[in-house]
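sanity check this:
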Amino acid sequence: MWVARRSAEAIGAEEAAARVEELSRLGGPTRLGDLGVPEHDLPELAASTATRAGNQANPHPATPAEIERLLREAW
């Protein structure tokens, strides 16, 4: 427990969570569908995202299927 708490403090997790809560109170769109992203575009977005340098530099790059699953959760 101590390690988790210290890790959260080190990366500012509590502050980050507070910022997310602040932003959610602003009342803007919270889902990709609300932003006009068509559901049928999600596979193409996932495939494109999987090829981006930031993903490829990750020690465990996300697969297009993993990214699509995340996008569908946010849709």
Remarks:
- The chain has two domains: 1-29, 31-75.
